[in-house]
Specification:
alpha+beta; Alpha-Beta Plaits; 8-stranded antiparallel β-barrel; globular
């Protein structure tokens, strides 16, 4: 079964931030030679809740699709993953198994869907190439959606990443179950934005993927990124 990993790295020191900027170019020569790695993307992130056009120079990500869990675990011990982890102030990996995929990423279908939706936590990923002529309208909607995601009592984890600022965007969130994610998607600014996407044609390319959450490694903000949030613990 294919395994997908989202590796997140936080760089607090100025020299480390300069180093990882260089790695956004250098790592491209190393990744094609990692055994079992079939698809990868190097991404920056946004500030605040993550879904913003303003870049966060301290947080970077590598999204990767592997032949298997064993290939993923072995590959994450190699460069560039090991180098980034060694330089980072904090890092974590979220292991994922795709069960639903629709659309394309750079003309490809990078994730191989298999099996059914789980009863427990699921991850949702949306990747879009925004039409330059629609970028202002798109980013005019995103802050409201971002705020709603951040305050939803069910969301366990969320981050916005991207390959190219403003135009190539990825949203990633983890929910306790499919029902809570679907409930959020059907209401408020998120539902309105989906209607606008369809009616006004904001995107040149879209990909929507859902994953079973297969585990985590490391910490994010000092804790397991998928541990219960304070709001969930109080519920």
């Amino acid at each position: 079964m294919q395994t997908v990993t989202l590796s997140l790295f936080r760089f607090d020191r100025a020299l480390a931030r300069l180093w990882v900027l260089g790695q956004m170019g250098a790592a491209r020569f190393v990744l094609p030679h990692v055994p079992g790695l079939r698809f990868w993307k190097l991404c920056g992130s946004g500030t605040g809740e993550g879904f913003t056009p303003k870049p966060n120079w301290g947080t970077w990500a590598i999204l990767a699709a592997w032949d298997s869990r064993a290939a993923a675990e072995a590959g994450l011990q190699r460069a560039p993953f090991s180098r980034w982890q060694g330089k980072a102030s904090e890092s974590c990996v979220i292991y994922l198994e795709p069960y639903s995929v629709r659309g394309h990423w750079a003309g490809k279908t990078p994730f191989a869907a298999e099996g059914a939706a789980p009863d427990g936590p699921i991850a949702a990923m949306t990747r879009a190439t925004v039409k330059p002529a629609r970028a202002l309208r798109f980013w005019g909607r995103v802050p409201d959606i971002s705020a709603k995601v951040g305050t939803d009592p069910n969301v366990m984890f969320k981050i916005g990443i991207g390959e190219v600022p403003l135009l190539h965007q990825v949203t990633f969130s983890v929910w306790p179950d499919a029902a809570s994610m679907a409930a959020f998607a059907r209401r408020g600014p998120h539902a309105e934005a989906i209607r606008a996407v369809r009616e006004e044609g904001w995107f040149n390319e879209e990909l929507y993927a859902r994953f079973r959450v297969a585990g985590t490694q490391g910490t994010w903000q000092g804790r397991d990124p998928l541990a219960a949030t304070p709001r969930q613990e109080a519920a």
